[in-house]
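Project standup — Tuesday

K.O.: blocked on the structure for the chain from last sprint. Re-posting the sequence here as requested.
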Amino acid sequence: MIFTFAADHGVAAEGVSAYPPSVTAQNGENFLRGGAAVNVLARDCGARVVVADFGVANPIGGLSEIGGALVRCPLGAGTANMTRGPP
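H.V.: unblocked you, prediction finished:
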């Protein structure tokens, strides 16, 4: 099994990330659909890809829409912006 852990960080609001938080959910959905490089590696070795949502700011689509293994265990919708107070 290959676990991919997904979450967003609030400091992205400061423009320090290459991509906006919406891309995190899109990447998770792509992993669940089998369209990412990690899926190729998983198929090659007979492993299953599991996406664990630990705090993605935008919702990852439901299993019935996507297929695949999604574990929802969010600690929140991303973290707070550390430049504006405690995280």
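K.O.: great, moving the ticket to review. The chain is about 30% helix and 20% strand. The first helix runs from residue 22 to 33.
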